[in-house]
Specification:
This protein has 334 residues and is mainly α. The chain has 2 domains: 211 residues, HUPs (Rossmann fold, 3-Layer(aba) Sandwich); 88 residues, Tyrosyl-Transfer RNA Synthetase. It contains 13 helices and 5 strands. Helix 7 packs across helix 8. It starts with 6 loop residues before the first strand and ends in a 6-residue tail after the last helix. Bound molecules: tryptophan.
Length: 334
């Protein structure tokens, strides 16, 4: 018998385009983690509606993200893969946790403040409650590890606070999760238009980001347009953020170290290097896109995966929820 695997939870919102930054920073790691851990991955559609969504687009994006997860190599036989709204326990636990969460701590969250500013016409209770729903996601599965990027670190801190607060008030109930940065998780990918900013699909300049559905020509065109620095030497350096970012991207897609890349392009200019970066990205993305398209055509298969995933997730979630209901004093029959 092997050591018991640690439970790991993560989720991605089905809110449209996924960039190569999201892929390198999150989704690709999800695949690598599935052998060593007990992984539970969700498509966070409940979170998505905290900002305005076109209903038809949300439905489409949910299916697309599910297909993308599988095309990237997440194996529904190895992990629990499901759609958040298919498991009602997420909303149910959120209600209970709301009674121990303070409006002060929620309104102080950086992401709440940012999103309130960006969506000033739609500052709703869900937007403020977003981190409590996220805490429910994690705590329902008693996850020990949560791979998160810097932008979600504060939400994970709040999850820990809520878990500890509940455990103190009602006795030990939840595993207190740890943030997890997987080994070799790869560099942070910056915008191609402004390498001092993180790559983001909400960049107003579409040349700043590459999405997982960009075709080969688009990828190469965007790489060619990438902002580079003065000089023409392919070398990673602090005063060369543009070239350094391209070297990091090239490394993430080929496995080559910065030194190897510098040697490979010694004596060549930025032009050749940019095309090579584009080709390296396309070599990974194009087969993935074909696989995703194939999966999307097989609705029966996708529905089946979602159904089995929701059942498996519900079994675990129900166990935690009934424990919580008992602890807070809900009468559940004798
Ligand atoms: N808020 C996360 C994001 O936008 C997505 C998410 C929802 C999540 N629930 C989660 C991530 C639980 C980790 C754990 O990136």
């Amino acid at each position: 018998m092997g050591e018991e695997k640690k439970k790991l939870f993560s989720a991605v919102q089905p809110s449209g385009a996924v960039t190569i930054g999201n892929y390198i920073g999150a989704i690709r790691n999800f695949v690598r983690l599935q052998d060593e851990h007990d992984c539970i991955y969700a498509v966070a559609d409940l979170h998505a509606i905290t900002v305005k969504q076109e209903p038809a687009a949300l439905r489409r994006n949910t299916l697309e993200l599910m297909a993308l997860f599988i095309a990237c190599g997440i194996d529904p036989e190895k992990c629990v893969l499901f759609v958040q709204s298919h498991v009602p326990a997420h909303c149910e636990l959120t209600w209970v946790l709301n009674t121990i969460a303070y409006p002060g701590e929620l309104s102080r969250m950086t992401q709440f403040k940012d999103k309130s500013a960006r969506h000033a016409d739609n500052v709703n209770m869900g937007l403020m409650d977003y981190p409590v729903l996220m805490a429910s996601d994690i705590l329902l599965y008693q996850a020990a590890l949560v791979p998160v990027g810097a932008d979600q670190k504060q939400h994970l801190e709040l999850t820990r606070d809520l878990a500890i607060r509940f455990n103190n008030r009602y006795s030990d109930t939840f595993t207190v999760p740890e943030p997890f940065i997987p080994k070799g998780s790869g560099a942070k990918i910056m915008s191609l238009a402004d390498p001092t900013k993180k790559m983001s699909k909400s960049d107003e300049n579409p040349n700043g980001f590459i999405t997982l559905s960009d075709d080969k020509d688009t990828i190469i065109r965007k790489c060619k347009r990438a902002v580079t620095d003065s000089g023409n030497e392919v070398r990673a350096a602090e005063d060369k953020p543009g070239v350094s970012n391209l070297i990091a991207i090239y490394g993430a897609f080929t496995g080559k170290s910065a030194e190897e890349t510098e040697r490979e392009f010694a004596g060549k200019g930025y032009g050749d290097f940019k095309v090579a970066v584009g080709e390296a990205i396309a070599d990974v993305l194009v087969p993935m896109q074909e696989e995703k398209a194939r999966i999307l055509k097989d609705k029966q298969f996708l529905n089946d995966v979602m159904k089995k995933g929701a059942e498996a997730a519900s079994r675990i979630a129900r166990r935690t929820l009934s424990k919580v209901y008992r602890k807070v004093g809900f009468y559940q029959g004798e």
